[in-house]
Amino acid sequence: MAGVQFADVRKSFGSFPVIKGVDIDIADGEFVILVGPSGCGKSTLLRMLAGLENISGGEIKIGGRVVNTLPPKDRDIAMVFQNYALYPHMTVQENMGFSLMLNKAPKAEAEKRVKYAAGILGLDKLLDRYPRQLSGGQRQRVAMGRAIVRDPEVFLFDEPLSNLDAKLRVAMRAEIKELHQRLKTTTVYVTHDQIEAMTMADKIVVMHDGVVEQIGTPLELYDKPANLFVGGFIGSPAMNMIKGRIDPENPKSFKAPDGTALPVSNPPADALGRDLVYGLRPEYILLDADGLPGEIVVIEPTGYETHLILRLGGSDLSCVFRERVSARPGETLRVAIDAAHVHLFDAESGRRLTN
Ligand SMILES: Nc1ncnc2c1ncn2[C@@H]1O[C@H](COP(=O)(O)OP(=O)(O)OP(=O)(O)O)[C@@H](O)[C@H]1O
Ligand SMILES: [Mg+2]
Predict the structure, then answer these.
(1) What are the structural domains of the chain?
(2) Which residues form the ABC transporter domain (predicted)?
């Protein structure tokens, strides 16, 4: 097994920079997810690690060895692509064993490894089928099987679940995580889906426009987003963001644009008297008969929770209540804000302000 390091890695297509100096340190055995909106450079970074794209600047190391100019086949990695890229004219067994055959592995050894991978993935009974005779989830598993038989130093995944329906995606998420817990192979996984990132990763790298915005465990990113971008990207429904200021004379209250006072506890000194964004996650708005009045815009019962849009302080706020709410759109609902969980961001730089 091996760790992976990116040091000031850059990539331009022609004169157009798409990766603008990326540093990531991935420990041996870690499951790291690169997440970010479409076009931010995730696949490009993964393809550079795989050796499928050359590197314009910086250094990539696998297992302590610089691989910048090493061809893909010498990097000891296995990649699972979004479209699986299975060979249609080969059976499951042949698909999984193909790379071993290319590498001239002894037949008995190849069979043993395919059998092992098929066992792990529950493909034992499907070895003689062709890809067209498999469901989407089964094809996905064959693609993973092909990677597993190679027993690589590092697994790379590029959006491997995006062709599956929602239910299967959730099931495969757990399967891949369980597989990693079993094999403990260093894994770099790309997705644009923040829920996938939150649920699967040991460590998340949030990318935006060719740069890394923040690196941390899922809950670090959720509880302490470094900036507005990460705050808005991680979490669903998304964090509410309200522009306004805190008057230094009255530091326990944030003034929304319509003059409504929203609670703040212990704001950092540099938050006073400047343009701010008040970041409030939906679950920290609580039902409270003595609280602030808001007007219900939309109400969405999900069974387990009630999602609601509430017009308050001149903004439409997403709320998530564990309770059921029987009120209707247009009616008033009173809520309290859990001030201890409010984030304050500098409106200009987007940086989160902390004590
Ligand atoms: N071969 C190429 N030539 C020129 N530009 C490219 C090339 N490949 C990618 N790009 C550009 O580089 C940027 C990053 O692309 P990349 O495929 O890495 O994004 P991504 O984060 O994987 O997005 P998605 O979530 O849509 O897959 C995009 O602006 C894309 O248009
Ligand atoms: Mg991509």
Answers:
(1) 4-232 (3.40.50.300), 238-346 (2.40.50.140)
(2) 4-234
